[in-house]
Design brief:
The chain is α+β, with helices and mostly antiparallel strands and 66 residues long. Helices cover 27% and strands 21% of the residues. It has 2 helices and 2 strands, in the order ααββ. It has helices at 2-8, 29-39; strands at residues 43-49, 53-59. Strands 1-2 form a two-stranded antiparallel sheet. The longest helix has 11 residues, at 29-39. The termini are far apart.
């Protein structure tokens, strides 16, 4: 859901888990990953399909040749 994606990269955010599962972790992993990617001039791309899972990728821009 779009409203969930906005929260994904917030510190300590945890989205609801499937029925019968508890969310794990502290909710800092994606937040810290996004911060580190930003320091490199990169960003994190997220693709998600309900019931199938999510894929995250760090997209690092190419540097111009010197």
């Amino acid at each position: 859901r779009p409203e969930d994606r906005a929260r994904l990269f917030q510190a300590f955010a945890q989205l609801s888990a499937p029925e019968g599962h508890r969310p794990e972790g502290t909710g800092l992993g994606l937040y810290l990953s996004q911060r580190l990617a930003a320091l490199m001039g990169a960003h994190i791309r997220c693709e998600s399909e309900p019931g199938r899972g999510s894929t995250f990728a760090v997209v690092i821009p190419a540097r111009p040749a010197q």
